[in-house]
Structure formats: C-alpha cells, structure tokens
Amino acid sequence: MNLLMVGVGAGFGALLRYGLTQLGKTLWPTRPWMTLLINVTGACLAGWVSALALPESLHLLVATGLLGGYTTFSTFHVDALGLINRKLWPQVLGYYVGTVGLGVLAASLGIWLGR
C-alpha cells in the first residue's frame, strides 16, 4: 500500500510540475522562474506537511509522492547551466540565491503554518 501511495502522489506531482513548467515557458520563455516558483512552493508545502501529524499513508502520498514529483532539483541545475552558458551572471546569482534562500524561508514558513 505504501508504494501505491507514493506512486499515485508522484504521478500527480509530476503532472502538476509539467503543467506549470509549460505555463512558465509561455510567461518567461528565456528564464527559469517557474522552476524557482515550483521549488519554493514545494519547500513551503514540505515544511507545512512535515509539521502536521498525518497518518503515515497520507504523509507518503503528499510529502514523498506528490511533493517529490512536484519539486525538481535536477531541473534547477539544468536551468542554471542555461543561464551560465548565456553568461547571464546576475540571473545566475539571483537564481541560486533565490532558490536556496527562498527555499529555506518557505520551508520555515511551512513548518510555522503547520504548528
């Protein structure tokens, strides 16, 4: 049952990420801002979910599955390399600092909201 919960959640998370990524390509065709938004909102939600007293099956569905499929560490680095290859140094710095800094703040906010 645990594998099913993780798999179902991951499928929905990946579909959500795909849809938002497509929207991001329309809104910001040359910038990875949607990946940043996905990772920051995912960090906030992960913090929130971790602070809740959820049954194990629901935690696996949401935290491990849904948010695991939704957030994207590998895409973050591919997007960063795209900025680096175009020598967009201020955007590279902003993207890294924004992703890490906002991710920590968002996770903290999520934990605070969950308490």
UniProtKB/TrEMBL annotation:
Purpose: Fluoride-specific ion channel. Important for reducing fluoride concentration in the cell, thus reducing its toxicity.
Biological process terms in GO annotation: cellular detoxification of fluoride
InterPro entries on file: FluC
Keywords: Cell membrane, Ion channel, Ion transport, Membrane, Metal-binding, Sodium, Transmembrane, Transmembrane helix, Transport
Catalytic activity as recorded in UniProt: fluoride(in) = fluoride(out)
One GO cellular component, as annotated: plasma membrane
Source species of the chain: Lacticaseibacillus manihotivorans DSM 13343 = JCM 12514
Protein's cellular compartments: Cell membrane
Lineage, uppermost ranks: Bacteria, Bacillati, Bacillota, Bacilli, Lactobacillales
Membrane topology, as annotated: Multi-pass membrane protein
Molecular-function GO term, any one: metal ion binding
Pfam families the UniProt entry points to: CRCB
Binding site for Na(+): G68, T71
Gene name linked to the record: fluC
Activity regulation description: Na(+) is not transported, but it plays an essential structural role and its presence is essential for fluoride channel function.
Protein's recorded name: Fluoride-specific ion channel FluC
Keyword Metal-binding: yes
Protein family according to the UniProt entry: Belongs to the fluoride channel Fluc/FEX (TC 1.A.43) family.
PANTHER family xref list: FLUORIDE EXPORT PROTEIN 1-RELATED
Record HAMAP family: FluC
Tagged with keyword Lyase: no
Residues annotated as transmembrane: 33-53, 60-78, 93-113
